[in-house]
Automatic annotation (TrEMBL):
It catalyses: 1-(5-phospho-beta-D-ribosyl)-ATP + diphosphate = 5-phospho-alpha-D-ribose 1-diphosphate + ATP. NCBIfam families: hisG, HisG_C-term. It comes from Hymenobacter negativus. Keywords: Amino-acid biosynthesis, ATP-binding, Cytoplasm, Glycosyltransferase, Histidine biosynthesis, Magnesium, Metal-binding, Nucleotide-binding, Transferase. Its EC number is 2.4.2.17. SUPFAM superfamilies: GlnB-like, Periplasmic binding protein-like II. Pathway: Amino-acid biosynthesis; L-histidine biosynthesis; L-histidine from 5-phospho-alpha-D-ribose 1-diphosphate: step 1/9. This is ATP phosphoribosyltransferase.
Amino acid sequence: MLRLAIQKSGRLSEDSLALIRECGINFLSTSYKLKTEATNFPLEILFLRDDDIPGYVKDGVADLGIVGQNVLVEAGYPNLEVETLGFSKCRLSLAVPRADAYASVESLQGKNIATSYPNILGRYLAGHGVQANLHTISGSVEIAPSIGLAEAICDIVSSGSTLLGNGLREVETVFRSEAVLIAQPNLTPEQQDLLEQLQFRMQAVRRAKRSKYILLNAPISALEEVRRLLPGIKSPTVTPLAEAGWVSVQSVVQEDEFWHITSQLKAVGAEGILVLPIEKMIA
Ligand SMILES: Nc1ncnc2c1ncn2[C@@H]1O[C@H](COP(=O)(O)OP(=O)(O)OP(=O)(O)O)[C@@H](O)[C@H]1O
Ligand SMILES: O=P(O)(O)OC[C@H]1O[C@H](OP(=O)(O)OP(=O)(O)O)[C@H](O)[C@@H]1O
Ligand SMILES: [Mg+2]
């Protein structure tokens, strides 16, 4: 049996639950029950505050956890990370009031900075030879300059709208973060085996999300060009069409290259291009 700790409610919750379900693991979840057991995989799920997850996993109270790298590194346990998960991407940034002059990180020397991440920020500033007074607060950090608590802040930024709404300007990126799977260091061999099964499924889900299945028709004369554009996993499937001189080609394409490749496919004579989502992808 493995115990997995995930965030009870917040920015990580929905994607963590979705990932577990996409791995084919079924469980009942209700907002008032803080522990549940999967029905078709030896997994127990604990619903916790995200700040508590690294410590629980380090102590082996939970075997696995899903948490942001920002919280993991701040807690001092970066070595627990076993897999990046590709969601809850954000950055920890320094920001100052929009009207204030800012030349470089050195201009923060001796200033008051409010943050929930004193360890990550302290290391960053020390790396730049800057000494500042860090005020640790646990939330609503962006309010600090406007109430006279600090001249600058360091907090999570994603779209930047919270900074904008509070009259602040992002000046330095201190740390980049995404959700990660973490594991306690003393898993039994049986638990290690279950973790590997889980990672295998998570990787298949992630790979599938980045890829699309593509089908198209092309004149045989364009086949070499189409093969070059769509190499697929091993090579594309090519089947003849009823109409002489034409083939149907099926392959896999990376989502971020899709539009670029499609325009080249059209240029070499491809027609009737269909693109389908892939649910799982095993290499
Ligand atoms: N705006 C955002 N965009 C993307 N990811 C974010 C954003 N804000 C936070 N995150 C990520 O999600 C994690 C959880 O954020 P959330 O705001 O839910 O935390 P919290 O308020 O501390 O929750 P808890 O109540 O569990 O302590 C953060 O540590 C960070 O990794
Ligand atoms: O750059 P943005 O897209 O505006 O996102 C950044 C904000 O998101 C997070 O807060 P959240 O909304 O999760 O609220 P919280 O303070 O309750 O954690 C974070 O603490 C920032 O305040
Ligand atoms: Mg928290």
